[in-house]
Amino acid sequence: MQIDVTRDVFKLAQVFTISRGSRTEAQVLTVRVTEGGVTGWGECVPYARYGETLDSVTAEITGLPDQLTRAALYDLLPAGAARNAVDCALWDLEAKQSGQRVWQLAGVAQPGPEITAYTLSLDAPEKMQAQAEQNAHRPILKIKLGTPDDMPRLEAVRRGAPEAKIIIDANEGWSAEVYADLAPHLLRLGVALVEQPLPSGEDDVLIGMERPVPVCADESCHDRASLAGLKGKYDVVNIKLDKTGGLTEALALRDAALAQGYQVMVGCMVGSSLAMAPATLVAQGALVTDLDGPLLLAEDRENALTFDAAGVHPPGPELWG
User: Fold this and answer.
1) Binding site for Mg(2+): residue ranges?
2) pLDDT by residue (tens digit) across 202-241?
3) Quick one: average pLDDT of 255-277?
4) Is 18 exposed, middle or buried (0-12, 13-18, 19+ CB in 10 A)?
5) Residue 278 bridge partners (DSSP)
6) CATH 3.30.390.10 in the chain, residues?
7) CB atoms within 10 A of CB 117
8) DSSP characters over 159-224
9) Which of 276, 182, 200 is closest to 237 using CA atoms?
10) Residue 122 pLDDT
11) In which residue ranges of the chain is CATH 3.20.20.120 found?
12) pLDDT exceeds cutoff 80 at 197
């Protein structure tokens, strides 16, 4: 078995800004696992918020043994970007070797399209209103917030897209006081979900706090081990493969979260269709699907995912799985 790692850069269609900073391109790692002349592949997006860099994740992957199974992988790497890319590559390899689709191997129902949110970058209110107007035809808009002055932005987006469902992602950018001040206005403005309003290490204050709309754990939820610390704080968990460390744990986290009474959102980092492809399996029936990474790119992989009025479609075998 041979494991290769390459760096790929995809230009964004426009500058993408969240509360932690801006970017003009998506830098990803592509992993290829070859055995017996068959190659499976996967993609990950190292994330500085979790102490990951392109170099550190590459080192984790290249340090793996040359004989590997998905079960063994979970003893060799922690949850995170490195394990995600290798796990997804191993799923793809197994599918190609067996002549079956990954959903069949995983024992889940054949996936179909899911309506996905479309993300509006953090900006001045008038510019966010213009973004909303341009995308008002989309059924779900996700708006990046996370500053003390977000009410004008939220009002502007609602003016720009009066019919769209709105979800908010604060990216840990609010204090308890800011969230408490904004919360009463969320229902009035038709907000359906709030992601990670407070820093993950400071979210105990959510216990007992009024939640007029569902609150979703993103940075506070990585894998099944995270669930114990979410009780009483969150209503929804955001499953991202770069956090769970692959499709294997993502499917297990989905099942465990649902069993414990949480609803599920399936999200992504900004990556290509290859990164989104495995997540479409996890997104089946989710409360919110947020797999719009390729829609934010100016360029994508060959055989890219299809996005249309029905949503994001599962990958064809020529892309993944």
Assistant:
1) 169, 195, 218
2) 999 999 888 889 999 999 999 999 999 999 999 999 999 9
3) 98
4) buried
5) none
6) 2-102
7) 26
8) HH-TTSEEEEE-TT---HHHHHHHHHHHHHTTEEEEE--S-GGGGGGGTT---SS-EEESTT--SG
9) 200
10) 86
11) 118-312
12) yes
Reduced to 3 states (helix: H, G, I; strand: E, B; else coil), residue 305 is: coil
Among 96, 142, 144, 243, the one annotated catalytic: 144
Annotated catalytic residue: which of 96, 142, 233, 240? 240
Decide yes or no: CATH 3.30.390.10 for domain 2-102: yes
- Does the structure show a pLDDT above 80 at 107? yes
Question: Which pTM does this prediction carry?
Answer: 0.95
Q: What gap in Å lies between CA 26 and CA 157, rounded to an integer?
A: 25
Is 240 in the active site? yes
The amino acid present at 239, given as its one-letter code, is I
As annotated, the binding site includes 169, 195, 218
What was the pLDDT predicted at 235?
97
Q: What is the CATH number of domain 118-312?
A: 3.20.20.120
What's the mean pLDDT in 19-32? 89
